Amino acid sequence: MVFLLFLFAFFVEFRLNSFIFADRFHIKLLKMRTKIVCMILLCVSAVTAQARKELLLEKNWKFSRDDLSEAVQPGFDDTKWQTVTVPHDWGVYGPFDGNADLQNVAIVQDGETRASLKSGRTGGLPYIGVGWYRTHFDASGFNRGQSASILFDGAMSNAHVYLNGHEVGYWPYGYNSFYFNITPYLKEKDNTLAVRLENLSESSRWYPGSGLYRNVHVFITEDAHIPVWGTQLTTPEVNRNYAKVNLKTQVELPGEFSGKLSLVTEIKDGQQKVVSRAETVLTKYDNNIFKQDFVVESPRLWTPASPDLYIAESKLYANGTLKDEYSTRFGIRRIKIIPEKGMFLNGEAVKFRGVCNHHDLGPLGAAINKSALRRQLTILKDMGCNAIRTSHNMPAPELVELCDEMGFMMMVESFDEWNIAKCKNGYHLYFNEWAEKDMVNMVHNFRNNPSVVLWSIGNEVPGQGSPLGLQTARFLQDICHREDPTRLVTMGIDNAQGAINSHLAATIDVVGFTYRLQFYQKAYQELAQRIVLGAETASTISSRGTYYFPVVEGANKKHDDNQCSGYDVERCSWSNLPDYDFIQHDDYPWTIGEFVWTGFDYLGEPTPYGSWPNHSSMFGIIDLAGIPKDRYYLYRSHWNPTEETLHILPHWTWPGR
Fold first, then answer.
1. Quick one: which of 15, 48, 107, 261 has the most CB atoms within 10 Å?
2. Side-chain half-sphere of 651: how many Cα atoms within 13 Å?
3. Residues 413, 460, 594, 605: which is the catalytic one?
């Protein structure tokens, strides 16, 4: 832009000097106009300058399974390494192996009291071990007066991150998003980023994936800027006539900044129309947090049937100069859970018609793929599903964004283990040091998303009936309340009587049972919440297109062909058929819905078969390829009553069959 201005001025000056017969007045007038035009162009250039730059590090990565410590150095020769695109899951490329991640365990949920060798529990895929990733990138225009961060949406696992030979950070939990400040080490040209990941054996109960399986971002901002996840937006008052919106915006400043900071925020609707605006000046008493209040007239409320979204576009100025731009997408909605009466969304009674899903995408592995996620959600939406539980870990941001857009309520879950082991090398090894950091990241990442309605602090963790379990539940719930006072907290409770005896069930905001239908009435009558959630339900097992005769209901049934009946009549010893869940949630307003185990089959956990060649689950309503099983239509007929459901089974049903 500056070059063009000089070129324009030179051209005008040249033309003026060539006008031999031009009078001095007109020459002076034309020069003045030229200056005015140049000033206007300079102002336009300043306004349109990019205050924030994001680099998506997707292509031209180098990958190796060799553990080479010298790979951190910029000059390391990686030309013989494999070239990959991130997101990337090295394990899904196989080969399948029955000896991969053998686990000598007793599956307590299946009633086992003695450990035995299990194969296929984590999918029989080679995800264990070390993997290195390296890439080069430019940070064009970066200078020492700016700030830079690197954000990993997820890296499986034990991530050590190096930039230009310097270690910038470590994060052990593979499911969480995390970021580091890379300002001291970033260069304008030819940066070398290296990431070492390591997955331990016996660290998971299902296929966790491997590698840089989610996206990697670099953010370059000015010295005064809004950090990653730096906004918190709430809607404290919502009705059909108006909505009050509160926005808190954190800013980071260079050293002792003494100038004037102001934040201009515009709220835009789905048609990009400005519906509210605020301009705020930061004072020294605000702890570097802007607080802005808005009113949106006649708001379009977010619901599963009509998931309308808004965006808050904020511009940060320091002494009148644009320093940063930050967008916060949100929805206007009000969730309220009332004892005895149930759950209400924008004043209307609603129940979760939900499914639990693991994070893998079947044949695609764990590498995030937004199109594949959208396909899954489209299939579930047609079934009448309106909710997703992210079992048993933090989800990819893309999933939450799609749930915002497509109208799914979410229970976002954190951990499958606390401080007592389920797996030999599971998260219990990191819990005491890392649990609070992981919880804070999860909440900050997703607290502005309208689809997220509940935080889940754990799934069927050992110790629910102990004082330590109660103490840990309070610790995690308090973090959620501190970082996000607007949402309630739940968890998956399988030791129902133990949790009642220890007062854990009475402490948690929303009592969430995994199965245990026999405790619903007891919890309703004895606990002050007077509300029960089916945090995990059904758990029937089936194979698409497989039928056995006569048709007999049973638990933990095994067949010679290692399949399960396509009829919804085979289940686990600790679970039940869907009909019983339908009865509970249809008949009582204080049951606020269910999350069926599971929406889709997933890699690993091949219940009821604990031995090779089985290596993927059979719990899904939909199979690994995304094709609905017969039971899909059972749920569709119940959850989507406004649409006609007609499904013909592919066999005869004459007497005796």
1. 261
2. 13
3. 460
